[in-house]
Amino acid sequence: MIPPGAPAPLAEWWQRLVARIIDGVIIGIPFLIITAIITAVVVTSAGFDDVTGVRTLESGAFLAAVLIALVSGAAMIAYEFLMLRQRGQTVGKIAMGIKVVPVGGTLGPEGLPQDVAAKRAGVLFGPQLLRWIPFVGWLAGIFALVNVLWLLWDKPLSQALHDKVANTIVVKVK
To answer: Which ranges carry the RDD domain (predicted)?
Structure first.
């Protein structure tokens, strides 16, 4: 059944989850390498001072956490924005046969409008930029969870919060 405002049947929750896992692997592997490089460059290891015998602390761990959060957040936002702007699909969505379209929009080969793709990517991954702040990072994690779970009880369009802000839905294309 196609709900009002949807040009095609809505994607199932599990299709969206598998697509996000595929995208997570695609962006996660290079990110692990970047994280290792940032950590190796910025963090000095803990150990013992040979002269005094006193344990020394790690330094640069906070700076590494900030840099990693900022780089990862920017990379995730850029990936989501560029892919949706180009064709309305990330690699995971292509593999799962689903596409992001504006509510009441069409299924043409063009991507999402720039402002729509920016809103969607910003709400979805923007909180990642704040993960380095101790309490705020915890709240950002809760928001991220509620954001993606929202589609499970949202009726009739099964929109996550990032879909609501951008006025988009995810539909099946094959």
So the answer is: 11-167
The total of other beta-carbon atoms located within 10 Å of residue 139's CB is 12
Write the CB contacts of 114 (distance below 8 Å, at least 6 apart in sequence).
Answer: 85
What are the tens digits of pLDDT across the range 50-62? 666 666 556 788 8
Burial class for 40, CB neighbours closer than 10 Å (0-12, 13-18, 19+)? exposed
Q: Give the containing element (helix H, strand E) for 170.
A: strand 168-172
Task: Provide the sign of the torsion angle of the four alpha carbons 57, 45, 74, 97, taken in this order.
Answer: negative
SS3 category, 149:
helix
Q: Give the burial class of 91: count Cβ atoms within 10 A of its Cβ; 0-12 exposed, 13-18 middle, 19 or more buried.
A: middle
